[in-house]
Design a protein that fits this description.
Two copies of one chain form a homodimer. In chain A, helix 1 packs parallel to helix 5, helix 2 crosses helix 3 and helix 8 runs parallel beside helix 13. Chain A has three domains: 180 residues, Molybdenum Cofactor Biosythetic Enzyme, Chain A, CATH 3.40.980.10; 79 residues, Alpha-Beta Plaits; 152 residues, CinA-like (Maf protein). With 433 residues, chain A is α/β, with parallel strands linked by helices. In chain A, 47% of the residues are buried. Chain A has 13 helices and 19 strands. In chain A, the strands form five sheets. A six-stranded mixed β-sheet of chain A has the order 2-1-3-10-7-6, sandwiched between helices. Chains A and B meet through helix 1, strand 2, helix 2, strand 12 and helix 9 of A and helix 1, strand 2, helix 2, strand 12 and helix 9 of B.
Chain lengths: 433, 433
């Protein structure tokens, strides 16, 4: 199994209605499994094109993962296409039919007869259970090709609904792939979530401490976060424990080198990292947001249970609100301007004292596209963090469009809170592009 | 030009690093141009696979749009692949080389010599200007196939950077496509942005007023918004003006049928619709958010210039903050609970009077996953809108995960403000699934 091909079907993928996030997700999983996705083929619900796509996929790959086209309606053609291309018949799978009937009974809804279409599978196919929906998936491992070039190929047919597809991949496809390859060939992965360095700066830092032969390095940038992945393949004959130890040693080098730039490991989000750091310190937080307009509060409240640590968020968009809600002095606004470290400091201090929080952060800046000046161009953002010990502030020049500036400013603010709660000496990363 | 094939290249698309949003965007544009995208092929930066993909694309389509692989580095292989597949040489395009040199000079950065690689184009190709980056694109219209089946095909090679690709498509590719087809064949499009009905409910409503032959109907659902598109193709011999009048009449039927469910036309966002409605009424707004945690403020502040209409956003996550910041009475919190219409009303009224706004909205609910009860399950959200005339409130049962509940609640709240500012009789849609 060296060549994986993904086959995505559905008219909705070819008229701009949705992006093919299934292909992205599956590609990421195969990357971590150490298998190469050589191509993605996307076609609509059209019989001739579907047959073309299946033949092409089986020609090109030795493992084909299909998503979509196994629902109950007449434009769901995947199963009959697979049977036609493989030259086999369909069989009615009674256990799958029972499960479909039971799901409708459990929802107390009458079952439209066409739902039983989903219980027909190509002969020789093995059911892949779908715990979250009615359409079962399946696997088949036919021979493909004529005479001397005939070879065994494997194909999985999964639904297009991301939630169902992902669950079935994790429950069934991934364990099957691991079993086929033997554990020795599947890489071990360690993921670091970072903030404060560009991808190329991270690349340089890691190149300085890890040699190309020691691990494969992957980056996942989805603004404003960049994840770094270390992948280690067990050597021939090496035990999993030994490979894990090798990965652990490399991970230690990364932690030491990157320091506070790493805010989490695995899939941890910045919001979650902040919530954990606040919980560890037993600290209660207040926010004072101007240019971010509520985004910091919104992001933190994505974390369940944050109410124990987030007291209030004062979104003070106007000068009047800055004075009335937080006590920012008129003099400060006039002398230094609304976008200044001085104003940010009074915002943070006002939020802390008025809410009774242990720590408060104030953010004020120019998100654009209007409002910039020579001294304070668009993207100027001032941050202040207030505690009982005093107030520290920073001014940063951010970049990009309005939404980009807001998002990056929220990330800086969250990182500042995290660094404070963890007792870091430096409260803000010296951002390195 | 009946069959469009999209060819996306880049290793980053096959290891989970990014989703192929270019393919989605291009598919949507071709849908509006009335052309069918029959397939998307995605391959990495690997010479053999790239050649396979190009041959396959030219076999299958008569218009091929390629994105990616035209940068300056050694793994950018698109142009040499195109030349190899078409069996032509490369030529050095001096004007493109000049432009690349000038861009580096303007940035005051030395130009790495490999950037001039981007000035090589296949013989016979026509430059497609890239106003936003160094890599020029190009078009070629070779004959493809042998003997009797040979036919003219068209191919466009564009960069993978979405911003550059979109601009070049809009500036050059789209006008070229329209010119090739003649205006008579390109459909006219009218888009409606809606909130308050599911896709299937919208489908039913529109089926009741527009016959299948009158227009093609498309839906674009990206939660929580659903856009409805009407597409009308000019009849043979019909003038553009007459077709526009026909579309205008159909659009009028949709406006009348859907009423307040339509919040905008074209690509208007809900945030923008609210900002315009507030500006039209000359009203100043305050927000009081509990479960949405700042999301409403964040969304509104995505609109440049909103500071003229948004005074303050009180994010009062705790009971103490509800009392201290907005004067919600202890008695109300104890008797009715923090998630109640009564609390929402006092939040809205507190935000209005304390900020001096004309209108304020209060939102409190249970975003989950914890905190639900039999009387108030997860997804219960209460809304109140306060003005000098009084307070109205609503309770809705929303659904889904925490982020989903927050997003949907923010959409309800924004829609309520919009409906108030426009003077609608009903302030909240009777949500129809």
């Amino acid at each position: 199994m060296d060549r994986v091909v993904l086959l995505s079907t559905g008219d909705e993928l070819l008229c701009g209605a949705i992006a093919d996030t299934n292909a992205q997700w599956l590609s990421g999983r195969f990357f971590e499994l150490g298998l190469e996705v050589v191509a993605v083929l996307t076609v609509g619900d059209e019989p001739e094109r579907l047959r073309w796509a299946w033949r092409t996929a089986l020609e090109l790959g030795d493992l084909v993962i299909s998503t979509g086209g196994i629902g109950p309606t007449s434009d769901d053609l995947t199963t009959e296409t697979v049977a036609a291309v493989l030259g086999c018949g369909l069989r009615f799978d009674e256990p799958s039919a029972d499960r479909i009937r039971q799901m409708f009974a459990a929802m107390r809804r009458p079952m439209p007869e066409n739902n039983l279409k989903q219980a027909f599978l190509p002969e020789g196919a093995v059911v892949v259970e779908n715990p979250l929906g009615t359409a079962p998936g399946y696997r088949a491992s036919p021979r493909w090709g004529e005479g001397a070039v005939a070879r065994e190929v494997h194909l999985f047919v999964l639904p297009g609904v991301p939630r169902e597809m992902k669950r079935m991949f994790t429950d069934t496809v991934e364990p099957w792939v691991r079993a086929q390859r033997g554990s020795g060939l599947t890489p071990l992965v360690q993921t670091f979530q970072t903030f404060g360095m560009s991808e190329s700066a991270l690349d340089e830092e890691i190149a300085a401490i890890i040699q190309p032969g020691e691990a494969r390095i992957g980056f996942r940038a989805s603004f404003p976060k960049i994840a770094v992945k270390l992948l280690v393949k067990p050597h021939p004959g090496e035990s999993t424990a030994a490979a894990e130890a090798r990965l652990g040693e490399l991970a230690g080098r990364v932690r030491e080198r990157l320091g506070g730039v790493v805010y989490g490991e695995g899939e941890m989000a910045m919001e979650e990292a902040v919530a954990r750091a606040l919980a560890a310190r037993g600290a209660r937080l207040a926010l004072a947001e101007s240019c971010t307009g509520g985004l910091i509060g919104h992001r933190l409240t994505e974390v369940p249970g944050i109410s124990a640590h987030l007291l209030a968020d004062y979104v003070v968009y106007s000068n009047a609100a800055k004075s009335d809600l937080l006590g920012v002095r008129q003099e400060t606004l006039v002398t230094y301007g609304a976008v200044s470290e001085e104003t940010a400091r009074e915002m943070a201090e006002g939020a802390r004292t008025r809410s009774g929080a242990d720590v408060a952060i104030g953010v004020t800046g120019i998100a654009g596209p209007e409002g910039g000046s020579r001294e304070r161009p668009v993207g100027t953002v001032c941050f202040a963090l207030a505690t009982a010990e005093g107030v520290v502030s920073r001014r940063h020049q951010l970049w990009g469009t309005r939404d980009w500036v807001k998002l990056l400013a929220s990330q800086f603010a969250l990182d500042m809170i995290r660094r404070w709660a963890l007792g870091h000496a430096e409260l803000a990363p010296g951002f390195r592009r």
